[in-house]
Amino acid sequence: MLSSQPRPQVIHVATRFLRGGSEARIRDITRAIPSADHHLIVGPESDLDLARERVAPASLRVIRTLVRRPHPVLDAAAFVQLSRVLREEPHDLLVTHQSKAGVLGRAAAARVRRAETVHSLSMASFGPGYPRGQDRLFRSLERRLGPHTGAYLVVGADLARRYTEIGIEPMKFHVVRSDARVDDPPGIDVVEVRRSAGLPADRPVILYLGSLDPRKNVLQLVDLLQRLTDDAPRDRRPFLAIAGQGPLRADLEDSLVRRDLARDASVLGFVDDPTSLVAAVDALVLLSGVEGLPQVLVQAAAVGTPFVSYDVDGVRELLELGAMGRVVSPGALEEAAEAVRRVLTAERRAPAADLSSWAPGEIARRYREVIEPLIDGRLVRA
Fold first, then answer.
1. Handedness of CA 43, 46, 49, 54 (dihedral sign)
2. How large is the average pLDDT for residues 222-226?
């Protein structure tokens, strides 16, 4: 158990706080360790009201130079500011989240040497799916930061393996899932769910659920839909539901109109509780270039909805756990279209995946198992 005196102080640093998976992990850590005071530092591209609502931090600080895009001047300024905060603010543990904050936060911590550092990972910052220059840069940075990182909290084994392959000690990696809604909604009425979402009841419905941004390759959804509708029988013409928000929404809608596919798709926007929607469709598609372990596929596995996904980190891990789905080569749209056709004609089975490691109690236990000894050790040494 954590010492009651003094009350432990934990600082979290994130590049930005929005509605993503890494932000959910900040929330989960603060809930798992309620006996500590959690302080949150974010960049200006953040929803501060959402951060206060989800995390309720003991303090919330914005570093204006901590921005997502690489910027030598701003990055140097953010490093100096983070170094000053970590030198001046008493803390027993630093937890960094996301690529930019992960690099600058851990580098600043190594400079001031005040407390143990943990890096929480929802996806890799290098590897396939990234431009060659970014891949090389972040491989180099992560190798240098490895010795200064006490532990890594990763969403899946594939992600851990990507880092150990560049020379970081395997013993530092701890798989802690990101909380996902994995309960099958009782008594779901498929017709009513589809009606409420404006989806057809008499056509196969394919769902994309996630952010509408370049990393997710959402514009490829239009190409996929074109392939699926071109040769489909009239009574089996697929319909594409797109749930999410992001910078590519207008481009996506324009592309559907230009390709004369507006009657075969619907852009739903942000869906607050997608569990029923995931259960009510016939298949889910994910064409991301980079993932850590896709939460949306966990949700699909929980309700028995089959998926088709590019071969990114975490997908094969889910298939090994019993999820129903097919994996295709990244960028292979014809492969993806054929996989969707096969999924739509296959018999749907009851959910059979072992998702016990996603249970909220198990996630909290794993966070405590990793974090509490680090804080306890710090308090004892102090």
1. negative
2. 97
Query: What would the pLDDT profile of 319-368 be if each residue is shown by its tens digit?
Result: 999 999 999 999 999 999 999 999 999 988 888 999 999 999 999 999 99
CA 271 to chain CA centroid, Å, is 16
Backbone angles phi, psi at 366, to 5 degrees: -65, -40
Taken in order 21, 197, 182, 325, is the CA torsion positive or negative? negative
Residues of the chain with CATH 3.40.50.2000: 9-178+359-381, 190-354
Q: What is the pLDDT of residues 241-267, one digit of tens each?
A: 999 999 999 999 999 999 999 999 999
Its CATH architecture, for the domain 190-354, is 3-Layer(aba) Sandwich (3.40)
Query: Is 341 in contact with 238 (CB distance < 8 Å)?
Result: no
Length of the chain: 382
Phi–psi pair at 208, nearest 5 degrees: -110, 130
Q: Is the dihedral of CA 114, 118, 123, 127 positive or negative?
A: positive
Q: Which residues, in sequence order, are bridge partners of residue 248?
A: none
Nearest Cα residue to 340 out of 238, 216, 267:
238
